[in-house]
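Final report, closing paragraph on structural work. Over the funding period we assembled a curated collection of sequence-structure pairs, and we close with a single example.
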Amino acid sequence: MEIRRTANAVLVAALALAPGLVSAQSYPTKPVKIVVPAQPGGGLDLIGRTVAEQLSRAMGQSFIVENVSGGGGAIACQQVARAAPDGYTLMVGYVATHGTNPAVRKVPYDPVKDFTAIAMVGGTPNVLVVQPSLPVTNLKGLIEYAKKEPGKLSFGSGGIGTLNHLVMEQFKAAAGAADIVTVHYRGIGPAIQDFLGGQTQIMTPGLAAGLPHIRSKKMKPIAVTGVSRHPLLPDVPTFEEQGFKGFDGVQWYGIVGPAKMPAEITAKLNDEIGKALASPAFKERLSSEAIDPMPMTPEQFGKFIQAELVQWSTVARERKISLED
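Its predicted structure, as stored:
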């Protein structure tokens, strides 16, 4: 009996010293909320609902999507940053909330210190497209044309400080193409409509937004961001292939939680999301938005976010891009 009491005491002491291990083994014991910082529909919502469905099946508990729009994702970020770091409030963090927005404006949260990086899900490149009638087929030709016809080319931006805007500003700086005029719109949709109507000559939309128009020959693609060519556009070279290094920015999406989440729960979620990214069904769902899986460990994802902030903050500072609320 004494031996049993001693063994029980040792077990209780061990469990007291390792609460994270116990919580990770039983997690989740109740529904988990995944906040999507946008209205239903589109790439963000697709990521949230696809991950939620996969985790619900894999972990035997409900993962529920909550759409929280407003403030360019700031409202959702504040809500999640203030939540208990117990793994029951997660969020789809993406290039805007944890990259470009903090680079161009003062946001009411710290994209690194206020969050736990859990898992990268995937990304889709931006495509530099021009009007089909423009007599250029590559970046070199575009630069030469812009310098030959100063002020005649205009670029349609989806908004100040958006990824498509910063990618183009990065290119203009690298190419010395100051004569390309930037025209800002309230979203990528209106920018595409004016491009199709001939009001602008250049755009850098995300691949999912541009692909239908590329296939219909209404947009001519001449370069893609990212470290390699995209399988949906195998004949379109990357920026780096054409002599422009550092254009690896993509529209990325991942899962984050409040700061100081237990490492064991973070690892458990990362493992399950990693398994999902390897499944053909999951990849097929992502392909509707031209999103390619980008599996990373929590540590790798955290460093990725930090690198994104440095890159886009540098572009914003050098190009004097600032958007004050």
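The domain at 2-123+251-318 is CATH 3.40.190.150 (D-Maltodextrin-Binding Protein; domain 2). Confidence is low (pLDDT under 50) at residues 10-22. We thank the funder for supporting this effort.
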